[in-house]
Amino acid sequence: MNLPNGHVLQNRKYRITHVIGQGGFGITYKGVWYTEVKGALGTVQTEVPICIKEYFFKDYCYRDTASFAVRVHSETGRVLFDKFKEKLIKEAKILSEVHHPHIVNVLEVFEENDTAYIAMEYISGCSLKYMMDREGVLPEAKVLRYVHEIGEALQFVHEKNILHLDIKPSNILIDSSGKARLIDFGVSKRYDIEQQETSTTMLTLSKGFASIEQYDNEGTQSFSPCPDIYSLGATMYNLLTGKIPTESILRATRSLQNPSELNKDISPKTEAAIIKAMQIIPADRFQTVSEMMAALDFPPEEEEQTNSLQETDGQEDNEETTVLSQNDQQLLNENDEDRTILNEEEISPQKHKKRRKGVLISVIIAIFACIGSAVALLVQGNKATINPGTTELINPIEEKEDSTQAIQETKPDVEKDALPSVEKKETEIVKQQPEKLTPTTVVPEKQPETKQVLAEEKKITIQPVQPSVEEINAEYDALIASGKDKMGKADFTNAKKDFTKAKETKLTEEVVRLLISCDEKEAAKLLADKKDQYEVKKTFGNYTIVRKKSTKLYGAIDVNANERIPCKYLNVGIAENGRAFERKDGLFDIYDANGVLVNEGSTYY
């Protein structure tokens, strides 16, 4: 399904050399860019190594062997194919304008062969996944250095209302100088001023690295850095332990093992940051990447870093990002019960209690058998005459106030050398009657010690009564119903209290989702209340020009309704390099599209 080596694109501007990777969304080629470089010697033709990513949605596509065009199997597939292609082109165009030292640079986006292509700079090096496969678990200092660089890249894109949504070791390249570069924004999302996601809402995720909200088709409708923060924490977990974390959607029943249990060399501060970043509920995580970076102790920067593992050229194992359609999401929901099965001990506590009881009885019987054997041997050694009719053995096993109890054993026709049979022995607990002792009664010399040992063996520990499964379920259902009712009344604070109690009663995916939904609705309500203070006028760069209702003065707010340009101006006009905000003294402050004051107190605009 790949384009052949040597294939040219864009009127021979690019030539493909070979495939270096492929996944569910596309095929990545190494190629050559034929361009001109102007210098002191004039214009020189040169070849620049690049990467070319071809959009190829493999579940729905095939390649026409004659024309190399990408075809779609069905009309249903065509809808999905076109939707993702449009998304890819839009995000690539955004990234072509986003330049950061730790983000791969996009050179060009174009359409050809009935699909889309992205031409990117070629980075000589390898991914963190490849590095870990070759070197094993990475040292903490090295991981922290890479995370610091990727954290800077994420802060940069988050400021532009972009989420990456697919952070994992295979999407972080380490170049030949040892610097980390974030790649593959193929499933990223950009959000507009009203916080409505501008791209497709189809679910995309990498198992083990995706936050729980990425499993819900409404989980990433509002901009929040939390999904990327979870994935960055999961990436650290993987690099420092060598283990892919438990899927977030399964952690209700499969707890996440602490990193230090897998790698004792992880520092407590790093472990604490990973655990907080990977909290199931977004509100419990770091709320910004900068907050997460502040919680880590980064090693001092070294003057020069190198990466001894050079380009992999397709030697890496392919690691795909899973695409979940609405049908897949329905299937996940239908299988929720299978995902929350309790372990056997939690389901059938009575069964285990019976087993323990049986073991205790067996131990007691064995003790009695040993005592019987000892008595028989003692009697034989003293050549005592035993009445064949009845043998009374005084064997106190419990104390109750000042009285004692004895076990009377009755067995006809007991032979001198025969041990008593456990199966045929009849036991009866009776009050000790010393006056009934006959001369043939045998009393062990060390009876008090025997009494003490047996008393300890017979001690019974009374366990507190545990609520039944039915009682737990009833309490859980009541709390869930109460929380939902309060959510319907927009009482999110008390709804969260009910859901938190329900989570402590029984941890399920349902209650985790409800807590997340409660946080999101509460945040949405707070944001709506903040926005309601303003009259929206016009979009201005990444901000919105507004008029504050209480003062009737103008300014600009960001997506979170924070005033980026203070609402203190009488009016707003269009300036040559931005917007002119009229002050009360009749002068104008000029702001650019980034909300930066570029000219203060101007007399005109």
Overview of the structural elements:
By secondary structure, the chain is α+β, with helices and mostly antiparallel strands. The protein folds into five domains: 1-122, Phosphorylase Kinase, domain 1 (2-Layer Sandwich); 126-312 and 320-332, Transferase(Phosphotransferase), domain 1; 385-441, no CATH class; 469-527; 534-602, no CATH class. It has 15 helices and 27 strands. A six-stranded antiparallel β-sheet has the order 1-2-3-4-8-7, with helices on one face. Strands 16, 17, 18 and 19 form a four-stranded antiparallel β-sheet that branches. α3 runs antiparallel to α4 (226-241), α4 packs across α6 (268-277) and α14 runs antiparallel to α15. 30% of the residues are buried. The model is unreliable at 193-202, 314-318, 325-365, 375-379 and 381-459 (pLDDT under 50). One of its GO terms (molecular function) is ATP binding. InterPro entries: Atg1-like (IPR045269), Kinase-like_dom_sf (IPR011009), Prot_kinase_dom (IPR000719), Ser/Thr_kinase_AS (IPR008271). Keywords: ATP-binding, Kinase, Membrane, Nucleotide-binding, Serine/threonine-protein kinase, Transferase, Transmembrane, Transmembrane helix.
